[in-house]
Every structure is written in structure tokens, then in C-alpha cells.
Amino acid sequence: MIISTGSKALQDQLYSRDLPTVSNALKFTGKLALLKGRSNYLCLERLEQQALAGGDLPVQILSDVILLRSWSNQTEDGDISTCVSVAEDSQAWPLVTSTNDNCLGSDCPLYKDCFVVKARKKAMDADVVIVNHHLFLADMVVKESGFGELIPEAEVMIFDEAHQLPDIASQYFGQSLSSRQLLDLAKDFTIAYRTELKDTQQLQKCADRLAQSAQDFRLQLGEPGYRGNLRELLADPRVQRALLLLDDTLELCYDVAKLSLGRSALLDAAFERATLYRARLKRLKEINQPGYSYWYECTSRHFTLALTPLTVADKFKEVMAQKPGSWIFTSATLSVNDDLHHFTARLGIEQAESMLLPSPFDYTRQALLCVPRNLPQTNQPGSARQLAAMLRPIIEANNGRCFMLCTSHAMMRDLAEQFRATMTLPVLLQGETSKGQLLQQFVSAGNALLVATSSFWEGVDVRGDTLSLVIIDKLPFTSPDDPLLKARMEDCRLRGGDPFDEVQLPDAVITLKQGVGRLIRDSDDRGVLVICDNRLVMRPYGATFLASLPPTPRTRDIARAVRFLAIPTAE
């Protein structure tokens, strides 16, 4: 049996807590195994390479690499989520983990000690394997070596948090190329030159030119934190010139690496990646192909170019046909207003047997929904400061024990800064350490405020008095400028549908239901949900959101919410 979840955090929860409980209750004696994608495990070979290249690394990255060398001698499974000494967003992680592109496989000198190999061997011997949707689809679509041996033996595939599948599947049915991949390729050219091929100085020249070409292309993309239309971007002559230089550089890397094939396992793997990246870039430049959204996004230093199919229904049905057996899709948020069509249509499984089960919780007694009056206008200067000031009394009255769930990283950081400046309660911020460590800190503190974004909207289970207040900054509509959303909306419009009602609204409802679901996790839980968005009660579509949420009493009086939290029984 394969059980696939929507997040690594939920994988860990199922493996460490939920499934052992179920096994004990059912007296199940079979073996359980946890398997993640290779980039979730420390790569001993790449760690050793970075340690040897230490003099070329920035001080902070070198410091983290040193800490990771120490951790590598202590960890049993190499799962990077269990490392507490290095921050989750450290720039060292991409350097010491591998991908399907750069892994040396059985040619690696440390293959026998490989944490990925050990994890997959354990999975092969197990009766129940817990994976995540990304890993499952990577295996089914691109046939990543190793994990494919698990699937033929599985008679049952269960997908928890199945509402995520359409969007994740679209990533694997599309193609992408990122500057991180290109810079990693450049670094491997450098390492090959400095270790095994010192007589091939051209490798270093290729590495330098590739890194420079990637950086030059990034400079043409404008401000960071933006996702745009790739078709429109490539109409810019400056971008065209930068892309041509990048294309020429990849061609040079391919030609130079080809001359030294067979002399270095590292360079042989780099040659394969150069071949793959050339093909991907060629495909991404073919922007007139119908049925796809062509988009790009950039951070302060990196970029990603991608194409994504507008629908995955036909391709997902092909994937299912490859593996006959029982396919079970489950989630608390598959429906919109008690209707499953939005989900089944996106995966092409309209004929599936379906069932909607009632909640075991008494929301009329256990919870209260508050949409405060006099909310500050969003996206205005000072809005984070005003919102933090409005929320501070209820957070302090509840003695923390609160999740502040945000719809953007910018708002998350701004609110955390305001809360830390004005409250004495411990304020935890997503990204400062691993998700698992953050949750441990939240639970052990007993009075903490956790400020987070998408990663904590779902797949997080905190029960009891430790969490009794969940605040959401606004309704989670995807940005209207998102090119994939734009393409899906246009496709809907061409089919005669209503893009808002059929695309934007259902997506936002499902996301909101996930965030709301963090509050009541047990029949004894009790708490308040605060949604800081007037549209929920002032716009007609707010009724669709409310009809999709649990039937909780509602108020606009934040003082009533404070009283609800203070009194053991509902008013």
C-alpha cells in the first residue's frame, strides 16, 4: 500500500504518530516506511565536495557546512528536517543535497552510505510506504530511478490532502528550468576541474560563463517576488539577447563536457544535465504551443522559467491506467459548498464513486468565527502595523496559543516584526528554523504566537489548549496577475464558463478551508477563528465561503471573541 500526503510535515506526522496508533488499534504487524524525495536527504558526496571547496564559500555558508559535517556523523537517516543546527532557509542546503539531475547514482563513491539508498531499501521491504504527492508523481511521470520499483507492487494508492493533486500534477506534466539548476551545473564543472580534470581549464571557463549568463538573464527580469507571463517577457529584445547568450553558453558547456566523457563520473553526470537543460530551454522558447501557460518567476537572485498545462485531466487518467488497483482520494477540503465537481473535473475522474462524511466535531459549541469591524485597508502603508495593533489584545488575552496565517511572505514578515516589537509573548516565524522544530517550540512554549504562511495552512495538527486561536489575514485568492491563473481563466472563458465562479472562487474556498481546519482538531478542542477580511460578510461571494466552512456561530465583535476564549463553555 502506498499512502501519499500533501506535505512532508504530514508525512512525518503520519509515520511518527497516526499510523503507529492505527497499527496498535488494528493489531497490524506489517512494516511501515517513510520515503521522501532525494533533496530531503543529506548527500554525503556533495557535502564532502563543499568541505573541500570551503575557501571559495561565503563565511555563513561555510559555517553551516561545518555544522552539517558534524551533524552527518550523528544522524541515522540524513533527513534534513531533523537538523536543528542549520536554518531551514540556509543557502548551504542546495549545496549539500542532491536532485535527480545531479545525483551520481551507483557511480557515487559514497553510494553504499547514501541516505537515499538506505531509505529506499527500507521502503522496498515495507508493507505500507508513506510518500508525498511530489515524489509519487515524479515517479509516475518522469520515472525517477529507484522509487519506481515500489509502485508495481502496490495494490492500493491512498492520497490524503488530495485537493493538492491537480496543481502538483501540472508541475510534473510541464517543464521548467531555473537559475539554481544552472548555477549548480556551473559549480559541478568547477569541482570536476579542480579535483579530477585539472588539465581541462576550459571547464572553469565554462563554469564562469554559465554563472555570468544566468546572472545577466536574471537582471533582465525586473523586481523580485514576481510571477509573469513568459510569452510577453520573450517579446522584449533585451531579454531575447540575454536568453540567446544563455543558450549559447549551455551549448558551449555541452561541447566541452562531451570532450571529456568517461574521465569523471561527476562530469559525465554534468554532461547529461547540460543535454537535458538545452532541451528544456528549447521547449520553453517554443511559446506558441497551445494548451499551456508559459510563465516565469524571480527572487532577488534567482529565476525559474516554466510551462504548465492548463488541464491535467487526460494525462492523469493515463497515469492511473498504468497502475490498475484501488485509487482513493481523501481530504477535508475536496468540496466547495458540498459539491465535489471542481476536484473530480480537474483530475478527469468524474465517474469515481464519491462520499461526503459529516464532521465529528460540534462546531456550534466548540468554535466561534469573528470577522472584526474597522479592519485596516490591505496593501496600504501601515496596514500591518494597524492590523497587529487590532489583534494584539485578543492574542494577549489568549496568552498566545495562536497561529497567525498569512497569504503572503511580505505580510508574514511585517506582522512578525510588529508583534515582536509590541508583545512579550514568544513570537515564532516560519523560515527561521525547520517546520518540525517550529512546531516543537510552539507546543513546548505553551504561550507562543506562530506567524506563518502557506506551509502551515495545512498538514499541521496541534491539539488541545496549546492552540485555541487561529487568525487569517485575508481571503486567500491567488494574485490576479499570476500567469497560470490568467491562462486557466481564459481557458474557462473560451469554454463559455465564468472564470471567477469556476476557477478563482473554488480555489480560494479550498485554501481557506485548509487554514480554518487548523483550529479544531479534536472533540475536546475549543477556540476562535478570526478572518481579517470584510469581503467575507460584505461581498455576495462571501456566502459561498461561509457555506463551505463549518457551521460556527459568528460575530463581528472582537470583544465577544475574547470573552469566548475566557469562558470554559460557550455563551
From TrEMBL:
Enzyme class: isomerase
BP GO terms, sorted: DNA repair
Keywords carried by this UniProt record: ATP-binding, DNA-binding, Helicase, Hydrolase, Iron, Iron-sulfur, Isomerase, Metal-binding, Nucleotide-binding
Keyword Iron-sulfur on entry: yes
Any Pfam family hit: DEAD_2
Reactions mediated catalytically: ATP + H2O = ADP + phosphate + H(+)
InterPro entries: ATP-dep_Helicase_C, DinG/Rad3-like, Helic_SF1/SF2_ATP-bd_DinG/Rad3, P-loop_NTPase, RAD3-like_helicase_DEAD
Domain Helicase ATP-binding residues, every copy: 1-207
Swiss-Prot/TrEMBL cofactor(s): [4Fe-4S] cluster
UniProt GO MF annotations: 5'-3' DNA helicase activity; ATP binding; DNA binding; hydrolase activity, acting on acid anhydrides, in phosphorus-containing anhydrides; iron-sulfur cluster binding; metal ion binding
Documented EC number(s): 5.6.2.3
PANTHER family to which the protein is assigned, alphabetical: DNA REPAIR DEAD HELICASE RAD3/XP-D SUBFAMILY MEMBER, REGULATOR OF TELOMERE ELONGATION HELICASE 1
Family note: Belongs to the helicase family. DinG subfamily.
Protein name: ATP-dependent DNA helicase YoaA
Protein species of origin: Citrobacter koseri (Citrobacter diversus)
